[in-house]
UniProtKB/TrEMBL annotation:
Residues 25-245 form the Thioesterase TesA-like domain. Gene3D superfamilies: alpha/beta hydrolase. Belongs to the thioesterase family. One of its GO terms (molecular function) is hydrolase activity. It comes from the Bacteria. SUPFAM superfamilies: alpha/beta-Hydrolases. It comes from Streptomyces fumanus. This is Thioesterase. GO terms for biological process: lipid biosynthetic process. Keywords: Hydrolase. InterPro entries: AB_hydrolase_fold, TEII, TesA-like, Thioesterase.
């Protein structure tokens, strides 16, 4: 695992491409880590410089306090990304990561830095609301949710000691996203919403509602699959992202 320039604990580059014409910044889902995007980095290494966020409380940051508020998390991430805007930047956020990416984009645009595009994957729009309380369940209830979503490594779910180690960060993330207050705000970059047609966490209609959160263009793409459709449809998702990166460079 390679840490970004200056030993930045927030950013991970698995396949550094300092001369690439564009950057892709990836925001993990609840309970996720930067390493979730290792395959994305490998697949796009020839197209862009891929950077993945590493939130506190997991992997090599496991001794740091968890952040259980989306606004606070976005406040801390935004300044770390400013140096990346020396070329076109595309954001990709999955599930909770889509909301974090949106909130970071809001903060950056107030300082004159706007992503070329925001991919909002597997998440309903910021203005939509559901009553969810997974973060209030006991450990068994939280584990049941992880198994139902099929986004957690089976080795982790089968290792009791490791599982108990990561549950606090997962619970904190769920608290952050489940207590996020709906907003009507917009960003000045185009948004592409990606969704699985059988996602229990977001309907196609709820993903379509991202349209109201951009002053630029909007596109919705629906894939076969559930909440982690992007794992089973990886090649298709990568193709979509690659095309978007090339378009971002072409108009820069």
């Amino acid at each position: 695992m390679t840490v970004a320039d200056g030993g930045n604990l927030w950013l991970r580059r698995f396949h550094p491409a300092p001369d690439a014409p564009a950057r892709l910044v990836c925001f993990p889902h609840a309970g996720g880590s930067a390493s979730f995007y290792f395959p994305v980095s490998a697949a796009l290494a020839d197209d862009c410089d891929v950077t993945a966020l590493q939130y506190p409380g997991r992997q090599d940051r496991r001794t740091e306090p968890n952040v259980d508020d989306i606004g606070v998390l976005a406040d801390r991430i935004a300044p770390e990304l400013v140096p990346l805007f020396d070329r076109p930047v595309v954001f990709f956020g999955h599930s909770m990561g889509a909301i974090v990416a949106f909130e970071v984009a809001r903060r950056l645009q107030s300082g004159g830095r706007t992503p070329a595009l925001l991919f909002a994957s597997g998440r309903r729009a910021p203005s939509t609301r559901r009553v969810e309380n997974v973060h209030q369940r006991d450990d068994d209830g939280l584990v049941a949710e992880l198994k139902a979503m099929s986004g957690t490594d089976a080795q982790v779910l089968g290792d009791e000691e490791l599982l108990r180690m990561v549950l606090p960060a997962i619970r904190s993330d769920y608290r952050a996203i489940e207590t996020y207050a709906p907003v009507e705000a917009t960003v000045d970059c185009p948004i592409t919403a990606l969704i699985g047609d059988a996602d229990p966490k977001a309907t196609v209609e709820e993903a379509e509602a991202w349209r109201a959160h951009t002053t630029a263009g909007f596109h919705l793409q629906v894939f076969d699959g559930g909440h982690f459709y992007l794992s089973s449809r990886a090649a298709e998702v990568i193709a979509v992202v690659r095309e978007a990166l090339r378009d971002a460079v072409a108009v820069a």
